[in-house]
Amino acid sequence: FVSLDALDSIRFSSLKADGWYIDEAKQAMEAGDILYAGKYSTPDYEKIVEQNCGLAIENTMILHTPEVKEQLEKFGIHVLVDYSSYEPEPLGRTEWVKLYGLLTGNEAQADKAFAEEKSAFEEVKNSVADEADQEPKTVAFFYITSNGQANVRKSADYLPKMIELAGGRYIFDSLGDEDDATSTMSMQMEEFYAGAKDADYIIYNSTIDGELTDISQLLEKSSLLADFKAVKDGNVWCTNQNLFQETMELGTMIEDIHTMLTSDDPDLDTLTYMHKLK
Known about the structure:
Layout: E1 12-13, H1 23-30, E2 35-36, H2 45-50, E3 55-59, H3 66-74, E4 78-82, H4 90-94, H5 97-104, H6 107-130, E5 138-144, E6 150-153, H7 158-165, E7 169-170, E8 184-187, H8 189-196, E9 201-204, H9 215-221, H10 229-233, E10 236-239, H11 250-262, E11 274-276
Parallel strand pairs: 1-2, 3-4, 5-7, 5-9, 9-10
Antiparallel strand pairs: 5-6, 6-8, 10-11
């Protein structure tokens, strides 16, 4: 909606202002232009109906609480379930901007926004093609859960595809069923250690428990990580917390991963969506 200049068509959010990492959304909420209307599972029906909301856009989490969808529809509010998270290809997720261009009457802006992002994809693709004779570096992408397990992406998920598009190789190349809609799975640390200890790079997913700044914080989560090749070599990165909200920046994210994999600059410690742990 930001890329379409159509943020003013949104009246309610299921995130509070401090939950947004997109500046325009945060500012709109702080100004009262977008109102908090409760979590997706417990919306403020009275507020939503009172302001004549005509359309509720939900992600697939709404499928866990079908009674909310039914209640919204009883109030005459159309419900659109966004299945972009089921897209196995990163660019497929970005292409959903065309749907929102259609809904808001901004089709030309949507086509332009998608074309710009597609161009970023093509740029990285061409760079990777020039490096085809080199052995791809391996990458692990994960976070440590509250019960000490490693949560990783399944091999068919879009994030391993992004690593591949950036010229790397996801360390778990045959994890999970390709037809399974869930994108992640948890494994015991011993199993994760066996599969990922020799990865050339590791990227820590900060979405759940916040960003890390140094390797000691990572090792507090599991001492086993000290034996990882990437930790010993200093090739440990962490995502910034805006990573998963910026769906129109997947090309830039792939560029970040490509730069991480190919740069010889020892001072390279900050990219657009990732930073290196000290």
